[in-house]
């Protein structure tokens, strides 16, 4: 059984195949997949979502299946019922499960007991569906990923972890700049380093946003305070002073660099309106690409499940 809990779960060749499939599905948006006809994908969310829920729901419909949403109140994952029991029950009724959870450990426990493919729709440590859409967007805009220099500015969070793995698997070069104390988790730095060694990629982590952006083809940022970190807002706002993606910082990148953000954005904090809405922004193309990348992912998992 193949699960997709992290981009570390796939190889470089599998990533390339997924990106190729996403490109085909984007060109022929309403093409159904015979492996998905009549199939059902359940979405079990502990956190709200616009892009994750909509892209999986619409994607399954376009592929010939359907999606169902189970709210926190309906499931009470690990509270109303044990994670293991929810996994066993849901596995007998649906063909795929997308989990959007607070703790990555909940995702891993669910997958251990599941008999259908489990997809990480977001956890505190990893956001691989976002990473898949991100690297698809970068390839779409820039071409050969081995020639692309990416800068990620901000918090070394789940989005940064997945971008690091996507860049490492694809052969791209990535510089991550965070304030001291907010660097990516050591586990994901190790995973990215191992993948980069095999692919010829380069993934660097430092603290200088200007050095990270210098000569970059892509400038990416994310919120400084994620869901569940609201009590840290003031401390984080002070710590991230100087890490805003604005016109002055963007001027250090290549003239034709593109700007990315996974959304939702805290406008005026990690990114300014003139950059987010400016001519270099591909943020809404990036958001749309969640649909195409995830359709490719579900279709791939369907094929893997019947091998």
List the helices and strands and how they pair.
Elements: H1 12-27, E1 40-45, H2 51-63, E2 66-70, H3 72-75, H4 83-91, E3 96-100, H5 104-113, E4 118-122, H6 128-142, E5 149-153, H7 158-170, E6 173-177, H8 186-199, E7 202-206, H9 209-213, E8 218-221, H10 233-239, H11 247-250, E9 258-261, H12 273-276, H13 283-305
Parallel strand pairs: 1-2, 1-3, 3-4, 5-6, 5-8, 6-7, 8-9
Helix pairs in contact: 1-6, 1-13, 2-13, 4-5, 6-7, 6-13, 7-8
Number of domains: 2
Question: What is the topology, as strand order, of the major beta sheet?
Answer: 7-6-5-8-9
The CATH topology of the largest domain: Rossmann fold
What does the main sheet amount to?
5 strands, parallel
Low-confidence stretches: none
Helix/strand order? HEHEHHEHEHEHEHEHEHHEHH
Instruction: Enumerate how many helices there are, as a single number.
Output: 13
Q: Tell me the radius of gyration.
A: 19 Å
Distance between the termini: 9 Å
Question: How would you describe the shape?
Answer: globular
CATH class of the largest domain: Alpha Beta
> Which class do the helix and strand fractions yield?
alpha/beta
Residue share in helix:
40-55%
Mean pLDDT: 96
Determine the strand fraction and express it as a percent band. 5-15%
CATH homologous superfamily caption of the largest domain: Aspartate/ornithine carbamoyltransferase
Number of strands: 9
Oligomer: single chain
